[in-house]
Design brief:
- This protein has about 280 residues and is mainly α.
- It has three domains: about 10-105, Orthogonal Bundle (Helix Hairpins), CATH 1.10.287; about 160-225, Helix Hairpins, CATH 1.10.287; about 230-270, no CATH class.
- It is built from twelve helices and no strands.
Length: about 280
């Protein structure tokens, strides 16, 4: 963006102060806003984050701007609630993150040198551990993360201490290995278990499926692909294609839900090719 199009400091400050005043007024005067607590707003902020992800993934700039605004509102609201509880408000939030960014970018602000993104990440992790007193390899990996993100975070922490493959090929071999082990477990199951609709924790199949998914996340990480976004994208493509296949069947006078699987697959392949 040309410098002439960037907002002036005064304009940015005015816009952010206006939003802060608006949030505080809503908190004082709106019955609904007065009833909200931290847990409520955290939940809404999480919803807005997923909506932002969808908009960004779709490349919809207008929607991204709107969702960023919604998320910014919730950040301001949470900061206001934090101040009410004595945790510190927006000033503390902004100064804290600014201090953190300066501290963790010594190659920008303190004359150090970083020759690659990998070196920046390694130094970031070192400074983070020292600054926050974190212990152990797997610090800062909350179990509440979505499973794919938790797996990626843990793998990244292990990689930070050198426990990682350097290239994707060994990870692909690991996926093949895990798939073979899953097939072995399925073949070894008692015949009574093969018809079960769900294989729960404690079963060999359950663990092998988990290992296979974990290896797939590791491959995504090595290929610089976000596994959460990639899986969401694949799920939405599947939804779109099945719905298109059902529409194609309906146009041909057939009920997709009552067709044999082979005919359903024919329509699905048509939908996949864009008919």
């Amino acid at each position: 963006m040309p410098a002439s199009e960037l907002p002036q400091d005064s304009e940015l400050a005015e816009a952010l102060l206006e939003l802060d005043r608006l949030v505080r007024r809503l908190r004082r005067e709106c019955p609904w806003d007065r009833e909200q607590d931290v847990d409520d707003i955290v939940g809404y902020a999480l919803e807005e984050t997923y909506e932002l992800i969808d908009a960004a993934h779709a490349g919809d700039g207008t929607a991204v701007a709107g969702e960023l605004g919604d998320l910014l509102f919730h950040i301001f609201f949470l900061s206001s609630l934090a101040q009410e509880r004595g945790w510190g408000g927006l000033v503390r939030v902004a100064r804290s993150v600014a201090r953190k960014l300066i501290l963790r970018h010594p190659h920008v602000f303190a004359g150090e040198h970083a020759g690659s993104p990998e070196e920046v990440v390694r130094r970031w992790e070192e400074i983070k551990r020292d600054d926050e007193g974190r212990q152990g390899i797997f610090h800062d990996a909350p179990a509440s993360l979505p499973a794919a993100l938790l797996a990626r975070r843990l793998q990244g922490r292990a990689a930070a201490v050198g426990f990682d493959w350097q290239k994707p090929e060994p990870v692909i071999a690991k996926i093949d290995e895990e798939l073979a082990e899953l097939k072995e477990e399925l073949a070894a199951e008692p015949s009574a278990a093969k018809g079960r609709s769900k294989r729960g924790p404690g079963t060999g199949v359950y663990h092998e499926v988990g290992d296979l998914l974990f290896a797939a996340v590791n491959l995504a990480r090595k290929l610089d692909v976000d596994p959460e976004l990639a899986l969401r994208s694949a799920a939405l493509r599947f939804q779109e294609r099945v719905e298109a296949a059902a529409s194609l069947a309906a146009a041909a006078g057939e009920d997709f839900s009552h067709l044999p699987q082979e005919r359903q697959e024919e329509y699905y392949q048509l939908a996949k090719r864009g008919w």
